[in-house]
Amino acid sequence: DVKVTQSSRYLVKRTGEKVFLECVQDMDHENMFWYRQDPGLGLRLIYFSYDVKMKEKGDIPEGYSVSREKKERFSLILESASTNQTSMYLCASSELAGGRYEQYFGPGTRLTVT
Amino acid sequence: AQTVTQSQPEMSVQEAETVTLSCTYDTSESDYYLFWYKQPPSRQMILVIRQEAYKQQNATENRFSVNFQKAAKSFSLKISDSQLGDAAMYFCAYSKKTSYDKVIFGPGTSLSVIP
Q1: Which among A35, A49, A38 has a CA at the least distance from the CA of A89?
Q2: CB-closest option in B43, B101, B107 to A48
Q3: Among A55, A84, B47, B75, which is least packed, fewest CB within 10 Å?
Q4: What 3-state DSSP class applies to B85?
């Protein structure tokens, strides 16, 4: 089974703090993603990476950065957390095999910025 | 730009009954993927069912089936013999085949199952 893990299920940080959210996948997938999930808005893509040290902006990259130094690990960084970044953050990795595409998700990190 | 719409924010179904969740999307592509993902409370999001647009046959996975109407850009999910474990948030999603990694999600439908 594919496993995608995230470093924390719940996190509380103060405004202005630097926040690191870590994601690890164990299936050697090349592609990894960070989404933000808010009620009524579904999932919105923040950043994705298709290879080590490669990254691309998604739909809402402002206020975030990412790091991918190793294939299995993809980190989301909030340089200076703000209250409007309070949200659920989901990491995913993906594979395209035999014409079948699927994204595999981690359990999510619920971040509260006070 | 591609969009995915789910017009039912919440739905409920009696246990053992059938329920249909609606989804519409907008695209100018001729071939693409459509997905239904399930997110149970406090649990990980998992893929329920996948449809490739060039396949006319509707996808099925056990109690889950879709009604894919390409011309109408409609992709509904039918859950038969509903079980308590089906209670979850359901997301409809779309991706182009040419850039399959950019998956676009709808806002979700929260399904409750009444015992």
Answers
A1: A35
A2: B101
A3: A84
A4: helix
